[in-house]
Queue: 2 jobs
Job 1
Amino acid sequence: SGGSSGGSGGAVTLGFAQVGAESGWRTANTKSIQESAKTAGIELKFSDAQQKQENQISAIRSYIQQKVKVIAFSPVVESGWDTVLKEAKTANIPVILTDRAIDSPDKSLYKTFLGSDFIAEGKKAGQWLTKEFGSATGQVNIVELQGTTGSAPANDRKKGFADVIAADPKYKIVASQTGEFTRAKGKEVMEAFLKSQPKIDVLYAHNDDMALGAIEAIEAAGKVPGKDIKIVSVDGVKDALTALADGKINHVVECNPLLGPQLMDLVKKVAAGEQVPARIETQETEFDQASAKAALPQRQY
Amino acid sequence: MTKHRLFWPVVALLALLLGDLIASPAFFSIELRDGHLYGNLVDILKNGAPLILIAIGMTLVIATRGIDLSVGAVVAISGSLACLWIADHPDGVGATLVAVGLALGLSLVLGVWNGWLVAQLGIQPIIATLILMVAGRGIAQLISGGQIITINSAPYEWIGSGFVFTLPSAILIALAVFVLASLLVRRSALGLLVEAVGGNPEASRLAGLRSARLTWLVYVFCALCAGIAGLMISANVHSADANHAGLFIELDAILAVVVGGTQLTGGRFSIGGAVIGALLIQTLTTTVYALGIPPEAIMLFKAVVVLAVCLLQSPAFRRKLRRRKARPAAPAPASAPEKVEVTA
Amino acid sequence: MTTLTRIKGYRPQQRHLPILATMALLIGAYVFGAASYDAFGSGQVVLDLFINNAFLLVVAVGMTFVILTGGIDLSVGSVVALSTVVSGDLMQKHGWSAYAAIAVVLVIGALLGAGMGALIHFFEIQPFIATLIGMFFARGLCYTISTEAYSIDNPTIATLAQTQIPLGGELHISISVVVALVVVLAAVYVLAFTRFGRTVYSIGGNAQSAMLMGLKTGRTKIAVYTISGFCSALGGLLLVLYKSSGDPLNGVGLELTAIAAVVIGGTILTGGSGYVLGTVLGIMVLGIIQTLITFDGTLNSWWTSIITGALLFVFIVLQRLVTRRTR
Amino acid sequence: MTGIRKEFPGVLALDGVGFRLFPGEVHALMGENGAGKSTLIKVLTGVYGVDAGTITLAGTAVSFGGPGEAQQAGISTVYQEVNLCPNLSVAENVCLGREPRRFGRIQWGPMRRRAEELLARLDVHVDVSAELSTCSIAVQQLVAIARALDVDARVLVLDEPTSSLDAGEVEQLLKVVRSLREQGLAILFVSHFIDQVFAVADRMTVLRNGKLIGEYRTADITPVELVTKMIGKELQVLEDLEDSGPTRAEVADAPVFLSAADLGRKGGVEPFSLDVHAGEVVGLAGLLGSGRTELARLLFGADHADSGSIRVDGETTNLRTPRAGLDHRIAFCSENRKTEGLVEELTVRENIVLALQASRGWARPLSRRRQDEIAGKYIKALDIRPANPEALVGNLSGGNQQKVLLARWLITEPRLLILDEPTRGIDIGAKTEIQRLVTQLSAEGMAVLFISAELDEVLRLSHRVVVLRDRKVVAQRENQGLTADDVMATMAEGAVS
Ligand SMILES: Nc1ncnc2c1ncn2[C@@H]1O[C@H](COP(=O)(O)OP(=O)(O)OP(=O)(O)O)[C@@H](O)[C@H]1O
Ligand SMILES: Nc1ncnc2c1ncn2[C@@H]1O[C@H](COP(=O)(O)OP(=O)(O)OP(=O)(O)O)[C@@H](O)[C@H]1O
Ligand SMILES: [Mg+2]
Ligand SMILES: [Mg+2]
């Protein structure tokens, strides 16, 4: 393999620098990109940064060396991209951001952003909660399973949720701990919550996996997830939708990883020098029990 | 009594538990729920079981002056393989046994691989096992297709979250391995030979020890322990997560071993100490959750507690402390010289 | 390699063998890359190795000192993160000048290192544990300062970061590379030509003997960890230049990469034997493995890990075989 | 030093010991193994703190925080075990901490020259840029001494500096010591060689079991009196050793146990042939670095031979590893007990049973009772002190460590026992005991290969003497009427046997 270079031939070469393969969500994201590149006839140079920004930067550098037509990447973190993106700009290679935004004030460094808004996801979860418990009297005790400390989705989903529930003092987060986005930790932390908190009404999990782990802890404690403790989480992976269909989860806010087709459209447009909007949100919904049941058969990940 | 090797690790564990009791009296409450014991202490045992297992294996590796960074990857591989098999086959005890056999067989092969690099090629252990640490997670992802494999098999789940006589099965498995390892090591000559190889490899070689074979053995044993731990971790959450299962567990395991009184420079080892160390670390984790320490502060909290534990265990620290205390009380040495002789 | 040296009639010293072997392997890998992938052969790819790994190089140099004494420093990743976060905090939140922030960061790094060294020397806590405590502590400090990444737009930092030093043709390096090379040269000098440097080796050879020989082992041990802390802080600053950001999640797992680089470079983990130059080569090995994979560009995530491991294996085994055969 | 008391957990190493040292004298510190000599020296130089007592240097009370401070105060010490850095060059080991510098930069050239000069004073000529670990233990010992001589010292402390040196080196060293005495240095000298002590010391202090027995002028005491004071009872000197062994004729009739043909190793020893009969004691004689150890290692399988073959009991075998040697019931007791012999953090018992256990394999452990039995027996037979099988070997005195190592090999009941400097650092009582043991074992049919820097010892015990020079076997002599001078001559210039 190898030996092929950007400009040669008719095919557009896309250099894509992925964050890593840290979750099923991410794997679905990667798969979607790889598959839709194939169908779109785009030659894909793919690299996996193993969750390290340094690696992503050096991958982008090597794409510049290889003179690919377009560079796309999902930033590991929001900041710190100016230097390398300036190099890309100097080399006249357009850049597309996927999944996460960057916070550079210089908007000319990239052509467009395609992805989701973590704060909005947190807000949606909060809005569901306020609707669900709108009529409740007395304090609503919430426990929160945070993502990896310091990571953007954790920070933003926490913030969006907190902003919404701050409106009413009856919503109280009685315990909030990191479950590191994993089932095992989600379960372990929930086990401890169940012992230290006398009354829990709602669980808000920053991703599905932690919610799925927590469900097992709740069941082991002899409680009924979805009834005794209501659960809302973010992502919308298949397992979570199944649990939602079974009534063990009450609400799932979608964060869609399947942005391959949308990305390839954009790549073609950008490569052809067409104008594209500066920000494109992926199509995302929210699921309740009914829509989960409906969506399950086609769920790929 | 204070001379016993396990004295200070046990004191440290008890001190931490005492701290918990003071901070949250409910910490110790245990009740019977759904026919099994339920409480924080039970959680510590159950969730600590995988770490205990790995720490046991790691102890022997460290005793030979080695280190095994690949245990986390082995955890992921073993769990993924077992869950893959179970997901593809109708559940039942038979499928579970096959899955367990496959996973442990593969773990064994991985241990042989590590042993080969260290004992046969003579590569430094940290690098030799780093290879599998890096590649192993990839292998696990390859097995699982990068997705979390969710399973539904009561017999398999029993390994991680079942109960026997109201006690978590995980801790019983860990206990069994502990007893087995202790017997194997102390009832046979393995313990002595391992300590000799770790204490002075060249002298051991000249004393006629087959150190390559021993080295091989400990890496295989360690990988097997990690394999069992992998089964446990995946069974506990009914799913295999190739990306996160056992992530950074090698650090915790090494910490457990060292807190348990085994030196990283090899030689004398204490499996019991490693078990205490692992329990200490798990207690610390559970404490963090039970006391509601905010996520931002967990690391600081851990730093402080581990520092306190290590200082408590450090003979040098105790010596200095004692001297400081003794100084104002008795400034003059007991037997002062009567006359000063002029010399040199 | 064997034949090459024989032709010249030059017998390399036993202790230089790992370095020569690594160098030969690196050249081999480069030639392979240049033959397989377009644009790999351009000199800039080599320079990019330095540009991308400048901060890691500095950290690994500090680590080399520690490992030469037979110790280990697990705190480097966290200290790197702490340095970036503190820089971000001081410059972005408190509006400090870049130079003041840099000074403070370096002092913090050195102090943390000295603290760990003191734990190791005075209380005889094993280096692994003492620096693990340091690792927790520094990472904890990061989170307490900020759980979110700072985007650093300080003009001084921006200029430093984006200045390219042309080397003729299309080739260029960054200021970080210059800093890293200066650190490497300083370390080479210190280790080879100062009493302190030789004491470092002697402690690694046999700490007890070094003490009985009347060397200042305690002071040296503390100094070594101080150097490592300082280098980590400096590495953190280079990372700030590299990424213009201060992120509490920076450098997770970096300690292992640094240790791996040092050991691949031929330094023995039990101390007493090894060279800074080896560490530089170790970094290059890790860098070139990654570059090869990026240029290939067809591997999905898990194959990336597997191939990285496999290439690491090939490098280490070849290195091992070469050094063994010539013995 | 007055009223010095030092207690280790469970052992009272020094109990109210006083000691005086005057400028311009050589003062010998005498005592059995484990009497407390090394401990006293370590207390003096600040390695250990004292529990009680004072140290006065030139009228002022001092207390050193470590060897570094002691050195600064003008006390230069050679500790008993070779305490150098094996990973550094010879030159560095001589000069470490005092390297010639310019603007803080170490001058490597001058440093090498200085090391060469210092070693030349001891008549040692080695490549000073070679790594120390490539040097034999004797050379290492000389390097340590050269290092101590380099200091601008007022006090020179030598703890068993001669334990693995042969006569020539010892003579050279004593010459240097005398000249330093002339220069007004105070010299503290520890040795188990009574004749050396009487040759050089002006005064001596005797310790026994950590207690001060007395201080004597050399002129006022005879060797026999001294030994009596050291061990607390009369010593029967074993003059009749030679008679107790089998006669030469008997041995020649005994079957050949091991036979080496053209065995050799590049960089080690040149190919040699050697037959060892059952019940025969073969002594190896040679100067420092002549290749005795190398030869022994080849016979055991510690190193792999490049050429030649070995036959054991008439069958050709391939001794690739020490393990193979052990399986053929060959035992090798290394001269370097610290790095190649003992596992310091294990107990006396564990060290003693190690080789036996290794040969049995891990699955057939010696029962604890059996281990205690064996350990107890040899602790008694060799008078290992403290007589505690659970003491850590690292905490034993040098001589006692040597005995432990010897015990390890004796219990494997080998058919060929290779002893490389087995009496290194052992007091005379134990030395005679070991010599008696060798004679007795050979009478029982065990073949022994005996290496010692003391030619007398070799001659007393061996049936045959193999002489090496420049890593080459130059002569094999029947020990019948062989004198030390004969052997010396062969060692020095070589001869055809
Ligand atoms: N670190 C230690 N811990 C415990 N006991 C010790 C330690 N060092 C020495 N001892 C004990 O102190 C006693 C005196 O030992 P020392 O080394 O001073 O003897 P020595 O006179 O030098 O004997 P040798 O002639 O064999 O060298 C011995 O019984 C020894 O076991
Ligand atoms: N002059 C020398 N220079 C450097 N290395 C030497 C020299 N002589 C011996 N050696 C090394 O020392 C080691 C031991 O040599 P060997 O032990 O065979 O000598 P020996 O006859 O036992 O003498 P001794 O033990 O009294 O020094 C070998 O590894 C050899 O390479
Ligand atoms: Mg002594
Ligand atoms: Mg010798």
Job 2
Amino acid sequence: MTTARTRRLASTWTLGSISAVALFMLYLPVAVLVVFSFNSARTGAVWESFTLDWYRSIPDDRQLMRAISNSLWIALIATPVSTVLATMLALGMEGGRFRGKRSTEQVLNLPIVAPEIITGVSLLAAMSLALRFLNDVLGRGNADAIRFGRPTILLAHIAFDTAFATLIVRASLRNLDPALAEASLDLGATRWQTFWRVILPAIRPGVLGGALMALTLSIDNFVITFFVTGPGSTTLPIEIYARLRRTISPSINAVATLIFAASIVVLVAALFAQALGSAKRKPSAEAPVQGG
Amino acid sequence: MQGLVELRNVTKRFGSHVVVDAMDLRIEGGEFLSLLGPSGCGKSTTLRMIAGLEQPSEGRLSLDGADITDLPPHKRAVNTVFQSYALFPHLSVSDNIAYALRLRRAGRTEIAAQVRDALEMVRMGDHADYFPRQISGGQQQRVALARAIVARPRVLLLDEPLSALDLKLRQAMRLELKRIHRQLGITFVFVTHDQGEALTMSDRVAVMHEGRVLQLDRPEELYERPASRFVASFIGDANLLNAVVARAEGDCVTVKVGNGELPAKCKLSATTGTAITLSVRPQRVKLLQSSGGAATGAAAGPTGVVVEMTFLGDATSAVVRLDGSDQQVTAVRLNVEGVSAFGDLRIGDSVQLACEPTAVHVLVR
Amino acid sequence: MSSPLERREKRLLLALRSPGVLLVVALYLIPMSLVVAYSFLSPAPAGGVRWQWTLDSYRELLRADERASLYNGYVTLLWRSVWWSACATVVTLVLSLPLAVFIAGRRTTFAKNALLVAVVVPFWTSMLVRIYAVRFLLANNGPINGWLDLFGLERRVFLNSPGIVFVGLVYTALPFMVLPLYAAVERVDRNVLSAARDLGANAVQVFFTAFIPLVRVGLVAGCMLVFVLSVSQYLVPTLLGGGKANMIANVIENQFGEAQNWPMGSAIAVTLVALSLMGTLWSVRINSEARS
Amino acid sequence: MSSHRVIKAVLLAIAPVLLIASCANDDGDADGAGSGDAPVTGRCGDESKLGDSLNFYNWADYIDPEVLTDFEAECGVAVTMDTYTSNQELIAKLQAGNSGYSLVIPTDYAAEQIIQSGLAQKLDKSQIPNAKNIDPNQLGFYYDPANEYSLPYQYSTTGIAYNQTAFDTPPTSWSAIFDKNEHCNKSSILDDQYEAVGAALVYLGYEFSSEDPEGHAKARDLLIEAKKCISAFDSANFIGNLASGEVVIAEAWGFAAGIARLDNPDVKFVVPDEGGIMWQDNFMIPSDAPDAYTAHVLINYMLEADVGAKITEFILGFTPNLEAAKLLSDEYTALIEDGGIAVDDEVRKRLTPSEHGSSELFSSTWNAVVTSG
């Protein structure tokens, strides 16, 4: 008994230390980045003195601010749209058997297995053909042509966001007892009512997860976006990449820190919302009996 | 006169697999009808077709004379208690029950009153604000029941609602269901694979097998007069023995089993020499301590050897292998004050079988 | 044949699926078909294609290896990308498994959630920023070398080598492995493992005969995700490899960019996608076998 | 033709999606391009023909951001600038069509490709009176002999930038990078097929734009060897790396060495004895520019003496604008001269223009280098 206990303790320690090492590795670079975003030195690894200059310079940086606003604009539209599409798609896919299900699955797998660079390149090729054709058909000249820009980025983002979010929503749908929906229909709810009153509340963590996934994919995407940008539609990752490639600019450390902080805030908020939701479901002792 | 629910020539196929086969079924208003059969016999599918959760491939369904075949589930005055209970996890007990009423936009006070009544009926009045995952399986089952009856459906469908409960609870719930059925006076259609449940609760039982109703009758009739070998084997325990008609005298026959004969009462006009199947309930098999094959009475019962004795608590069962045959017969006798009613019968003893003519039921093979 | 209700149901599901499926068809299937078509065309002088069918690109893809003496042909590079990715997948797995087991083994939900969030946060932060952080950390004049100096150790060159690219692959892939693994480990019934122990299996035997088969679905899913992500990595070799540890995605980019040879780039891309698809189909088959 | 039908089918399938997207397009307000008869007066041209906004595609960090804000304040045109990091990136965008850019800055060989592919439109010189300020020496290059399509924006050289503290005797030969590199993992070569292969060719005694297969084979082998020692092929981070000391010797552009010098005065530049490259970036207007008129006005604005000086002092290249050159500060001159960046007559002899014929040969050589190792 004691040997079993020590053995378990030992294995917990081993697991724990390996986990600690893995987490440490995961965080060290980011942590260092955060620290150095407050360093006044322009170059190198030497700590000079604490400064907020790099953060202060961000609002005055027009290029950067535009990139941030582009990224937010795209993510804030792409996220809800793709979450709705993904939820619909998940319901449509998990709702039952249908002809061509296998091939549909294959098509839906494409965005997940296709290397980003190939997606980007193929979108560039296809969209430029399509735009040319569209401008011909609509008789649009140089001045008012439809061209690459935020709409094309948005389309591309919605496509891959939807594909990934669908994965998560589908997983939560699969874990759902199909009898729940049937019970609702049986009790007199229409399909629409059933969706809003039963299915959506039940798969809410999945939908929320899908939305979070879409949001971060959108904010984060570099490779695909790079190929479908147009004038004035540079997003934050592309701007960061361009700056990484040119001169030293410690303000990138600051921007990166801000992105990191924002991710944490969004994530914690989401978790908090979920925890709040489940706390609400616990009965309070003094709550009166319904209708009593 | 019309049944409340009628199924006419209803067939359900999944792909090429026929689950329900040209079924005709008539459910009377106010009755407690059980669909009984082994898993995969189509009983649940039948229930789901009545609920509208499954559409028949062929045939029509009607409720109260109106055709409901193409009516979606939410437009049918039929509610279901699901096997998994299917309580909405995000709603409290009272909100679960109020669900159907809210959909009908009933008034607040009315909903509150009806929910309270329903909770009282299932004796869950003090659990209104709990959530499904906070209450036990038995309690969930009651809530599911309350939810299904609160809107007073014409028909209540119960899909093996007791199968997830333990034995004690199951037996208690049988009585509860029976009581609620009496109180409400609505039609219950109850699906189960447990013949005990079906027999104890139902007004009528439909025994199903491979998508067909083999026999639809009152429990006593089913038990005493099974129409087929399958029904006999499925309802209660029965010894099914191959036999041949030895003599026929009016509505009485004597059949030859193993190395002996047994009297039987039957309405069949069986002629001498017909191969038949006998059904004898274990409780009605008598074992006589045979002393060297000395027989009494006109028909000397078959002899055999006891091969197994099992203590069952309130009773003891003995399995006898018939001499000159590989057939086995089980006999059950109640114990008296913990003492085996078989006396000092031991494994290996030779015995002779005897039965009352009314205990032996003849099935045509 | 089917009833009106069933037909309505089918139509509803189709309507739910259609927008998402059409989106993926329009933005993935068709563009990729275009890339497949491009791979059989001739290059135009300043990028783009001439509509002249040829197998030249594929011939070149195979031929480059024969000619290669000092440098690698495409097939060699493709193979290297696959090999590195496979190794990165294994290393990521070895690091992730203890972490997943450790998290799943925490008793309180709070501890579990806190650790999960810790793993997920980097997953939700910009990959670009994280790679940038790694680069910052490991630069010749970076913090790590600064610390080495501090302890009187010799400075080392970390960046711009195949080794660091490999580390980068593992680093970016880690969260993608931990999440599906955790989901699988969480579902494992501890009693089964105890039972295996009772039956006389030692720890190693329990691990390979009971534990691994139980988490196989999550394991295969994680491995597939990491492999597909790694084999087409563009950012990691670009930002950490300095052109000295290029992977196949860099060559594809080079063909579309510098070399302005779209058909060649397409041919390599098609080959890469074919490889990824084969990997996915294989893993899907393994998993469906595991389920049945 | 069947291929045609395929495209049509593809387009028809995508069209509705893009149509929806176009509704969200927010830049449809640019005025039509007009090259009217009235010559430009003042720094903002004819205000009635001037658009509200202009899309400008430029190299990253290749203009003083103040110039654009000043232009907006003075002329009311909001300039949206996007950046690229290679000429090929620019060409790909223009090739795709409807890029939306009205002004681009390609390097000479890229300008040639753009002109030959019909992707540029002729400039209306009557709208660019400041063209008179341009040094005649910087006009009439091979890619546009009559300067019909282009006017020079900025020029500079390609040579070697180094950190003088790392060298006892300053490097004067390409060998310091290619085959006698003493600073392994602290050196870089430009990540560009023409710059890298061209420099190797020059070192080996060939022309910068040589198409000699033997020369290319040698250049390829040389680069593959050099790759083992250098820290990276890099045309982006090397400026910061030179400044921080991460790299002590690098193939570099003259102006880039200047920028690095701002942070680190130890960085110097040299055009090697074997020769270096003189290149020039040019104003060009794409043939499908949405607002050619405003682009002309911006070109003219940037050719103003004060604006030109501002640009050059930011980039630290050389201005082709003779009037602007007069306004350059002493700090600029000192930085350029002390840094070895300035081009005098002696250095000029060693410089050749960046001219390219067959890109196929260069890219196959470069591809071999990229895939090696």
